[in-house]
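Subgroup meeting minutes
Present: P.N., E.W., G.H.
Scribe: E.W.

1. P.N. recapped why we're keeping a running log of single-chain structure predictions: easier to compare across weeks, and new members can see raw inputs and outputs side by side.
2. G.H. added today's entry (85 aa).
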Amino acid sequence: MFSHQAFAKELGGLPYDLIGDFERKMVTDYGVRRDDVAGYSGMARRTVFVIDGSGTIRYAWQGSREQPLPDYDAVIEEARKAAQG
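Output recorded in log:
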């Protein structure tokens, strides 16, 4: 949680909370839990979800070898759409 606070501060603050999943419940519930590589069991796959105010997933991206990073412009656009309702 302290790293989340430092990260948010480094960005000048965020209008939402960052989540820590110490019990690995969310990674399991969202289907992004890694159990395929020794040493990474229970860790989350690199994933981005944009969730609107009603709790609906409006956008999802999961990293792969071919695309290790998301299209940041697409993530921002989907976040803007979700914020507008």
